[in-house]
Predict the 3D structure of the following.
Amino acid sequence: MSASKLVSVLLLIVLINISNNGVDAFHKVFKKLQSQSTSLDSVSPLHRTAYHFQPPRHWINDPNAPMLYKGIYHLFYQYNPKGAVWGNIVWAHSVSKDLINWEALEPAIYPSKWFDINGTWSGSATHVPGKGPVILYTGITENQTQIQNYAIPQDLSDPYLKTWIKPDDNPIVKPDHGENGSAFRDPTTAWFNKKDGYWRMLVGSKKKHRGIAYMYKSRDFKKWVKTKRPIHSRKKTGMWECPDFFPVSVTDKKNGLDFSYDGPNAKHVLKVSLDLTRYEYYTLGKYDTKKDRYRPDGNTPDGWDGLRFDYGNFYASKTFFDDKKNRRILWGWANESDTVEDDTLKGWAGIQLIPRTILLDSSGKQLVFWPIEEIETLRGKNVQMTNQKMEMGQRFEVQGITPAQVDVDVTFNVGSLEKAEKFDESFATKPLELCNLKGSSVTGGVGPFGLITLATSDLEEYTPVFFRVFKDASTNKPKVLMCSDAKPSSLKTDTGSDAKQRMYKPSFAGFVDVDLADGKISLRSLIDHSVVESFGAKGKTVITSRVYPTKAVGEKAHLFVFNNGSQPVTVESLNAWNMQKPLKMNQGAK
């Protein structure tokens, strides 16, 4: 190996070590803990969410095969029925009529046959005319090879699809044409091309350090053949987990598109989850159906610095098309940021975040995300604040609500941008570094301003979600930074010598593409005890944080608006609602 190549490899290793979002690959096995079950009576309520999706106990990770069938929403997910760490994974199965109240059914898929005896990993669902919904998933064989299998419902007349069959003619795809059999997983929802009569799907993989999405074609949904080239790949991105590929409308700003849409006025989205970094990125581009190639527009980076569905604790996402309301819905998993010991003691780990709709932004350069409208049915008591001017160093409490369990939507008006700090172009693709350098307590010109969530009254503990406005020296246009900072979120200090034994309290950040022509920018945060999901500028930038305060819990938590910039900022309008628990949340899950 040449010296230059050696340096490149070492640099990549360093980047991997510092960029993995603080989360180990969730396939790490803790043999002594993976079957250490917790009784329902012993599950700790501290930090458990009230209105987010989770089973009563134990570990969950990737959302799998979300779909709508005969009026019933289905969500499958990776689940350990025996413990609060990864292991013993089955496909848990829950159903809902409104995406809010969930009923747990028996696990749909679990290791039982030679083609999945060592694991039933992630996958997707496809509605196949004449066959109903078909699940494609990754099975792990006895020799740890990753292969792709299918499962079908036993009774298509049952809207709950309680029982699934894994036919003996599995697998449908094996890594026997040069693919990496230890990195070959997570098949996508398939789409149908009416012009040539073929179904197509993608499987995530890697070759050395290059991330790859292989494409496979089939006429009958059983015999699949790999295309000559991957639909797309990218160097130095590592394993592409949980790929997702779907169209979005360029002209319709209210409705989503089905996976198989092949009409005009559309772009395609390719999203991948990066195993090396534990975050995702996506590109927008053109899908050439004749050549079976996807080409990104090139407006944003195709790699680690690319656009993200969520710039925080968010991974292994999966979308589906809801044909009842003509919308594309996104599910995403948020892992815990505390320690394995903490998870084992409390008896649970992982949540699914509030489902979000996806549309193309009016600029055509990015997506926008918004919590599904159904979540508003859980809103209770409402408090408001209007035209509250905040001078530098001021904060005002949002009173009369339950701050640990709330939906808050605020619009700020920053007025003049004359005091905005000059933007340093060296941070153009480094929002997190900029956020760490200029946190919520560092005085600026325009900002920082925003929300202080899950706080003690004296800010001994708090999680700020905030904006800071810079100005591009060459164009004089604003550059808006959004941060969610968990560093001051908890007084808990872990004494483990290994970083993996200590609570992970990171800051997360992303830039927000707004012109501030009217001086206004909005922020909505869904706060639920140990999770803060924040949507900047109506969903242009989204950041999720997991936090574990020791004092700012339950009724002892507080919520504030604040401004630490020299430019006064006005809370033009603020609405906050207490959030109620769903009537059903997987009670009885095994």
The helical segments are 3-18, 340-346, 431-437. The first helix runs from residue 3 to 18.
